[in-house]
Specification:
Shape: globular
CATH class: Alpha Beta
Low-confidence stretches: 1-13
Strand order of the largest sheet: 1-2-3-14-7-4
Largest sheet: 6 strands, mixed
Number of helices: 8
CATH topology: CNF1/YfiH-like putative cysteine hydrolases
Number of strands: 14
CATH architecture: 4-Layer Sandwich
Order of helices and strands: EEHEHEEHEEEEHHEHEEHEHE
Strand content: 15-25%
Structural class: alpha+beta
Radius of gyration: 17 Å
Number of domains: 1
Length: 275
């Protein structure tokens, strides 16, 4: 699968800093894989963190959401995310739900066909994956850590989005920054589960010297799973970045532990006219 041109980086001086997918942008979808820069949170959550539950000031998190909303072009009240549990449950959203109530619901996929609704996930090493239907403007955001990847959460997200969008859906996707193969060391048991959950097989497991822990390429597995869900190579974009080895731009649970901040990734339903 061919990797596209480098994802666009917005200047932090403009507010909340984010990476974007050229593929999604060219198709008219407002979206952002936010970095940790351009917010108001104090250390160790500096500065653009989106989770008060890890110890951050709730007022700072609210302001960070406002900044993210301005970047996306929607009200903060229409950015929805769930209590993630590394599963495959989804929540379809209309846009009239109370955001503070939705966040207490359990699930790892948000989706909507209502223009102006922001479907989001939070992460600190897991992979955020966006899917969008070019025909209807419906979108989904999936949270895929290693457990979710084993459960094939992106395949379920594609199924749920096609069900919502109706016949003739033309899906595209973007895989955002997460812990990449350079840093994702796992035990042999986890490596075995990950090698069995997609057509990538053992090719996604990097083995070094005898006795060394294997490293896993989650991005390669996610691409294989999206292919199995019917998305060809030209329909999947890479938005690169390793959360674990780039502390300037990303939070990482593996690197920073319990007091790591949380990144936000969000995509807005409805297409903006192109050209």
């Amino acid at each position: 699968m061919t990797t596209r041109k480098t994802a666009k980086m917005h200047d932090a001086a403009e507010g909340a800093e984010a990476l974007t997918s050229p593929l999604l942008a060219a198709s008219g979808f407002s979206h952002a894989f936010f970095t940790r820069r351009g917010g108001v949170s104090a250390p160790p959550w500096d500065t653009l963190s989106f989770a008060a539950s890890v110890g951050d000031d709730p007022a700072a998190v609210r302001e960070n959401l406002e900044r993210a909303a301005r970047r996306l072009g929607i009200p903060a009240a229409r950015i929805y995310f769930l209590s993630q549990v590394h599963g495959v449950a989804s929540r379809a959203l209309q846009g009239d739900e109370d955001r503070d109530a939705v966040v207490h619901e359990v699930g790892d996929i948000t989706l909507s066909g209502t223009p102006g609704v922001g479907c989001a996930v939070r992460s600190a090493d897991c992979a955020p994956v966006f899917l969008a239907d070019r025909r209807s403007g419906a979108v989904a955001a999936a949270h895929s850590g290693w457990r979710g990847t084993v459960l094939r959460v992106v395949v379920e997200a594609a199924r749920a989005l096609r069900s919502l969008a109706g016949p003739g859906a033309e899906l595209i996707a973007a895989i955002g920054p997460h812990i990449e193969a350079c840093c994702f060391e796992v035990g042999d048991d986890v490596a075995a589960e990950l090698s069995a959950c997609s057509g990538a097989g053992e090719a996604a497991v990097l083995r070094g010297a005898p006795g060394a822990r294997p490293r896993v390429d989650l991005r390669r597995i996610l691409k294989a799973q999206l292919a199995e869900a019917g998305l060809d190579a030209a329909s999947v974009d890479d938005v690169r970045g390793c959360t674990a080895c780039d502390p300037a731009r990303f939070f990482s649970y593996r690197r920073d532990g319990q007091r790591s901040g949380r990144l936000l990734s969000a995509i807005v339903a409805g297409r903006t006219a192109i050209g």
